[in-house]
Amino acid sequence: MAAPFLVARDIAKAFGGTQALKGVSLDIAPGEIHGLVGANGAGKSTFIRILAGLNHPDAGRVEIDGQGREIGTPQRATELGMSFIHQELAFVPGMTVLQNIMLGVPKKTRFGLTDWRAIARDVAPIARRVGISAPLNAGVKGLSTAEIWLINICRALVRKARLIVMDEPTASLAASEAERLFAIVRDLSASGVAVLYISHRLDEILSLCTRVSVFRDGRSVAELAGDALNRPALVEAIVGGAIRDVQRAATARQRGDVVMEAKKLTRAPKVHGVSLQLHAGEVLGIGGLVGAGRTELARLLFGADRPDSGEMMLMGRPYAPASPAAAVQAGLGLVPEERRAEALFLSKSIAFNLGIANLDKLAFGRYLPLMNRRARTSMAGEMIRSLSIKAQSASTPVGRLSGGNQQKVAIGRWLQRIPKVLILDEPTRGVDIGARAEIHRLIRQQAEAGMAVLVISSEPDELPELCDRVLVMAEGRIVRELTGPAVSRKAIVEASYLEPEAVMEDHPA
Amino acid sequence: QDKPLLGIVSISATEANNVRYIQGATKAADEHGWKTNVVDAAGSADQANAAIQNFAQLKAHAIIDMVFPYSSIGAGLAAAGDAGIPVVTWGGGLGSTVAATNGSGGPMAIPVVDLMVEKMGGKGSILALTYRTGEVCRNREVVMDEIVAKHPDITITKNEVRIPGYFEDGAQYANAWLASHPAGKENLAIWGCWDDPAIGAIGSLRAQGRDDVLVYGINGNAQALENIKNGFMTATAWQDSFTEGYNMVKMLKDIKNAGGAWQAKAAEVPAVLVTKETADAFLKDHPEAIK
Amino acid sequence: MSNVAISARRLSPGAKAALGIFARYGTIIGLLAMIATFSILSPGAFPTVSNFTNVLNQASLAMIIAGGLTLAVVVGELDLSIGFAASLHGILITGLVVHDKLPIPLAVVIVIALGAVIGLVNGFIVTKVKVNSVIATLGVGTILTGLAFAYSAGVPIVAGVPEAFLQLSLGRWLFGIPNNIVAMIVVLGGLWLLVERTPLGQEIQAVGGNAVAARLAGVNVDRIKILGFVISGMCAALTGILLASRLGSGTASAADSYLLTAFAAVFLGSATLRDGEFHVLGTLVGALIIAFGFNGLNIFGAPTFSQYVLQGAILIIAVGMASLGRSLAER
Amino acid sequence: MSNVAISARRLSPGAKAALGIFARYGTIIGLLAMIATFSILSPGAFPTVSNFTNVLNQASLAMIIAGGLTLAVVVGELDLSIGFAASLHGILITGLVVHDKLPIPLAVVIVIALGAVIGLVNGFIVTKVKVNSVIATLGVGTILTGLAFAYSAGVPIVAGVPEAFLQLSLGRWLFGIPNNIVAMIVVLGGLWLLVERTPLGQEIQAVGGNAVAARLAGVNVDRIKILGFVISGMCAALTGILLASRLGSGTASAADSYLLTAFAAVFLGSATLRDGEFHVLGTLVGALIIAFGFNGLNIFGAPTFSQYVLQGAILIIAVGMASLGRSLAER
Ligand SMILES: Nc1ncnc2c1ncn2[C@@H]1O[C@H](COP(=O)(O)OP(=O)(O)OP(=O)(O)O)[C@@H](O)[C@H]1O
Ligand SMILES: Nc1ncnc2c1ncn2[C@@H]1O[C@H](COP(=O)(O)OP(=O)(O)OP(=O)(O)O)[C@@H](O)[C@H]1O
Ligand SMILES: [Mg+2]
Ligand SMILES: [Mg+2]
Hints:
The complex is a heterotetramer, with one copy of chain A (509 residues), one copy of chain B (291 residues) and two copies of chain C (331 residues).
Chain A: E1 6-15, E2 18-28, E3 33-38, H1 44-51, E4 59-64, E5 67-69, H2 74-79, E6 82-85, H3 97-101, E7 109-110, E8 113-114, H4 116-130, H5 145-158, E9 163-167, H6 175-190, E10 194-198, H7 202-208, E11 211-216, E12 219-225, H8 231-239, E13 258-267, E14 271-279, E15 283-288, H9 294-301, E16 309-314, E17 317-318, H10 324-330, E18 332-335, H11 339-343, H12 350-355, H13 359-362, E19 363-365, E20 368-371, H14 373-386, H15 403-417, E21 421-425, H16 433-448, E22 452-456, H17 462-466, E23 469-474, E24 477-483, H18 489-496, H19 500-503
Parallel strand pairs in A: 3-10, 3-11, 6-9, 9-10, 15-22, 15-23, 18-21, 21-22
Antiparallel strand pairs in A: 1-2, 1-4, 4-5, 7-8, 11-12, 13-14, 13-16, 16-17, 19-20, 23-24
Helix pairs in contact in A: 4-5, 15-16
Chain B: E1 5-10, H1 16-32, E2 35-40, H2 45-57, E3 62-66, H3 74-82, E4 87-90, E5 100-102, H4 109-120, E6 124-130, H5 135-148, E7 154-160, H6 166-179, E8 188-192, H7 195-208, E9 213-216, H8 222-229, E10 235-238, H9 241-258, E11 265-266, E12 272-275, H10 276-285
Parallel strand pairs in B: 1-2, 1-3, 3-4, 4-5, 5-11, 6-7, 6-8, 8-9
Antiparallel strand pairs in B: 10-12
Helix pairs in contact in B: 1-9, 2-3, 4-5, 6-7
Chain C: H1 2-9, H2 13-41, H3 49-74, H4 82-98, H5 104-127, H6 133-152, H7 163-170, H8 179-197, H9 199-209, H10 211-216, H11 221-247, H12 258-269, H13 280-300, H14 304-330
One adenosine-5'-triphosphate binds at residues 144-145, 270, 288, 290-296, 337, 425, 456, 458 of chain A.
């Protein structure tokens, strides 16, 4: 193998009392696709942030091209030939696609002014190569997460980076988009660019990577390559033992009465005439491609947006929530898609974040409107245990948790409230395999206790694992309903590509 | 063409003394058959210049500048000069192209400071609340310095108040000064270069229950007169702003008539010293002073 | 600076813990250090019960208005109308008591209710008409100045202010504690309880922390923001009332300068205990730093110009200690 | 309100487009409507070339300082020191010209360099010591007030101001355009080019749009923020110089009140064209609204109290139109 581009040795890093990294080592050769896996909170993102110059290690050394380097700032990291696509996507909302691609990149000028025309000429082929379909001068505001990923990748290519680090790139991509990403990654590798690839999806890791490092509790515990690189070995290394496989409920359970119903719900331009029924005790999945309008649908059901037309019923009564507050009052809960922006109070404690939707349970009483802080702490403690949230205590600010653990807090809020209807938008995005099984188990448990659950997921395997019934959406319409044994990865993917016009008549869901 | 316009630019159209001057000016203007237009520059010299320029645009008959020193309305004076409009000042001094002035603050301070020094028996400590940015206040401070300099046994602590914020500043400076000047050791006095900071200080005195400190103000605004009646303030010099405003506008007619032949001049209205002893008599003569 | 950073990175855990203490308690340490310094510099006059009482008494009004402002900023908005509003309230209460001869308690209730209405208007313009709070409250403040002027024609209301009204602010409570201090403790204590210890307070904090997330968690964001403005308006009214009582008159623009003082206190406070978050306790500490700084410098008798310089320096140093401690400890 | 919302949802595309125009151009429409109203109310005096030149001339200084402030807020910080700084600069330039007899161009360069240094200090305290910009710039502003006082002992520098210095501000350029207007156009034009059309401007916008993203993309966020403060400081210096020339004297606190005017202009401007983003063009529109509002009300001769009320209302309505249009169009 060629001399490594990057070598990291015995990197350690503590935040306050938490020892995020206790000593990890890793090296990457030019052109290599190097996998990095580990449970939530294992320290992957922290390691990446150190390489990116965002955090400073307490100990250890980093070599690039065999030379010891101090990466003090993100600029330095860029100069050293590294480019990063961080777990929490970063872009400037007010800017265009092209401006975002060129963020922090030296630009061509004419008479001191930015020569956007020349820049666009240079960038256009690269943008085409990574598959950006939006016009370069369009604003990024309405773009999907996937497209923003592509913008970040495009930036790395424009910079001619020698190492591109991707922290959970497929967490928010649909299967087809993920496939295109894999093609780009292989392409990059072939042209000599090294890729450090972090993911919780082991299939991806196995098909892409030639070598995989495993972190556990802040240490490197394994480096697998060649024959040693297989699924059981990875799982073993990640969790330090075998894992209970997720079991699909063998028998279709009794489903209860219709709890919620939507009739011809429309909100231009994303949702068109969606009708659905949701029963007590069932887990209903909504599949489809990213951009199919599922998030928009969830927002309509939850009162976050108002429909142009159509009706909703809840428990047999007309239901037209004027706001999420009204929806929550009526018995709904929503775990939104973007946890940091839409669900969490990052500077506040775990207990605060869990308690915010359960305030009625936390008051001493109607006539003593003070908060029972002990109750809040103990409720939070329970949730931390039952979701195995990795945190020092219930008073740790949520912003300090790893991505997956943040997701667990966002879900835990509603598991504590036990609403009649719970809508989960991408519930296991960024969650490690162990925790994912745990979250699935909890969802099913709630359903068994009578809750009606609606799950949106872009991950092909998730809905078959979890759901009793699946509706597939395409271009804002429901194009297919799959029930019982018909629910499979293949059927969902197939239906996702249906032309809505063709199926509207014969599939009145 | 409708009635001739009298433009008035005030540093603070909500300040009591300004208001009385404006009332006097308006009365005289009514008698002339002029209409008045008041602009509040809210303490900003730049706004004052803008307002004077605006009046020049309007071809006003005459413009009164209230309290902004002639030195800080250069651009306004230039615009008015170009348009041939006379500008007079109240407390802004005589200079540049200013046609007339009154309300010069300095001399008003003399009787008050004399009384203060006399009551102190020539020794003790004074807290002086000053505001040097204002021409009027600065002149009064100079007057006080001259008089007090003759009494080496008097020590002065000077503190600058801010506008806005003079009540609060007066109170806080008084608090701090009182802490290091306990009762019963020496003769104490607080002097405000106008009434309001002194009134802020009175708040502190009363909150602390200190009645050993004599307080002096200048201007004789309604609040100060009320405090004198109640025994919280020892003396103030009542500036007859209403008459000043009235007389000034009366004189403006002469200025207009004289045209280029006018000789710039100061036309002061003497101030009246008011103390607890004279308060009742004074108020009988000038019931308007407290309305 | 980057040298500091590099050396701090290799700090021992002990040093990091010490820095952590600075991060949390930096402003409080600053306050105590300042008090200690002035006590040494002016041992006779500064560290006395009566001086401390006087400083607190004087600062109470600013603390009350700053406490109200804290609620507005906690919900993520600015309220620039408070100073102007307090000036109007001062004139109004004097007018109600002197001209309209209303009983004092009734007048107080009316004025505080008006404060709530002004807050409601601010809140409505911000949440429903969706005007940025800087412009909305500046606009409302300007309008209030006009109204104050219209009510009083610019002439202070002075004559015939009853002694009982003056006693609102000048009076003393049990153990001789001045009423102002009692009012301040009641108001700030109440606000602290509300924000930190009630379910409603959780919603208030949530709206300030992340309004989008709060909305999706079922919080009625607009209502909470309006509440923040209403409380801010009510506190401004109380400050206006107490100021009029202290001055014995209702004077236009008498309270305008509280705006800047309140802002300084609130933002100073945001560096206390929690990183960059606004909270009632922090505002209290901020207001104390400003009040004792002013008083101490004055008693020491520093010349005017150096008082300004030192006041500015105190602000920066008090926050700087906390912030530097935090960023070094967390690197 | 929710009724409005629901009905808006049923609006025809044409109505939506109209609302969209309001959203983008609301403040500009407001400005034009205001100018039209005053032209009707005071047909003789208001809508004349000389009055408009006059208004622009008056507003130029506020526009320059507001333009600088725009850069500070574009990078996501507040600069409360500008008014105090401009006051100091005014005293200083007068002192340099009158007492030290420096040639005027040299004095101007020195003072503008000092403005840059003050910006540097602000930027350093905010980015490196990590003090919140409200406190940092308020602290620095207070210190500057002290320095102004120390330099002049609070007494305005008046005597002996040379005519050439007065001509800086009073003079006229080609075609009789006042120098102030020329300076304003040059400064705002330059700032607009910088922010909107240069690579550096991209970084400036990125830092303001999402500082975290900019940092991750390798933009030196601290340097850009410092740059914003430096430009803000330099514009404050220029305003201070022109003000001293206009007043014909160096006076402590003469420019303090620009702070509020500049803020109003900048925040008004943020509702222009782009939703809630700060930009140079918007600030220009905001400053024009304020200047024409003041002038029009003056010329119309509205009573003092109603001038306040109307000024406040103009602020709210100008932004309110844009904001309501936007939220209805986007529902
Ligand atoms: N700023 C911080 N302050 C305190 N603790 C932190 C901070 N950042 C990370 N941590 C802690 O460091 C540990 C490692 O977190 P990291 O984000 O690196 O995990 P990860 O492997 O990326 O997890 P995930 O798969 O969930 O993204 C976690 O326990 C986390 O709580
Ligand atoms: N109200 C909104 N404001 C901003 N962005 C939104 C909003 N609603 C949806 N989006 C974003 O627009 C993109 C497309 O959303 P849409 O609801 O159409 O697709 P989806 O089927 O929910 O896709 P996904 O698989 O990402 O959930 C998503 O990235 C989503 O985050
Ligand atoms: Mg991570
Ligand atoms: Mg979605």
